[in-house]
Design goal:
The chain is mainly beta and 179 residues long. It has 1 helix and 13 strands. The strands form 4 sheets. Strands 6-7-8-9 form a 4-stranded antiparallel sheet, with no helix packed on it. It has a 4-stranded antiparallel sheet with strand order 10-11-12-13, with no helix packed on it. Strand 12 and strand 13 form a beta hairpin. The longest helix has 10 residues.
């Protein structure tokens, strides 16, 4: 597959390819990229069609060598489905490991990581990027039992908003906006 990291305007034109090495990476690549307001990208590095972990591509340095990205991802093994907070201070992600599963937030330099939510019982987080509230203080997420949850970034106040059932992919709207 020819995976590429690109940006485009809301109309779907003006496509810019950010990583131009997709032809030489073989079965390695990047997926689930998300960009903060200053242009930094966090993405999941995959190798051999398996997700490895998260890596950062700072603005202006998108062509970091693939071996450096792979080394970053190996340090952040099991972390997938990233999502930047609107204020750019945090990255929320899912930890797929069997030893520390759940929703985590990390600092953009990956030096600090905090578990903010582990679903109760046999439920597990869906491997879908958590949604941030516009004020960067709350997260929404879905679990594999079809529930939608909300939790604050300190790991308090978690509550199920819906489910179990077939609900998934929650998202926030901007407060105060009328349709």
């Amino acid at each position: 597959p020819a995976y590429q990291v690109c940006t485009m305007n809301p109309q779907g034109s003006s496509i810019e390819i950010i990583r131009k090495d997709w032809q030489v990476m073989g079965t390695d690549g990047l997926m689930s990229p998300t960009m903060n307001a200053t242009g930094d990208i966090v993405a999941v590095y995959f190798s051999g069609f398996k997700q490895v972990g998260l890596c950062i591509l700072p603005k202006g340095k998108y062509m970091i060598p693939a071996d450096s990205l792979k080394a970053q991802a190996n340090k952040n093994k099991g972390l997938v489905a990233p999502s930047w907070s609107p204020d750019g201070k945090w990255i929320a992600c899912i930890n797929n490991s069997t030893t520390d599963p759940g929703i985590h937030i990390l600092t953009p330099d990956f030096k600090e990581m905090f578990l903010v939510f582990t679903p109760p019982g046999a439920a597990a987080p869906m491997t879908v990027a958590p949604g941030w509230s516009p004020d960067s203080k709350w997260l929404t997420l879905s679990t594999n039992d079809g529930s939608i949850w909300i939790v604050d970034i300190a790991g308090n106040g978690s509550r199920r908003l819906s489910g179990p059932g077939t609900d998934k992919f929650p998202a926030w709207s901007k407060a105060g906006k009328k349709r």
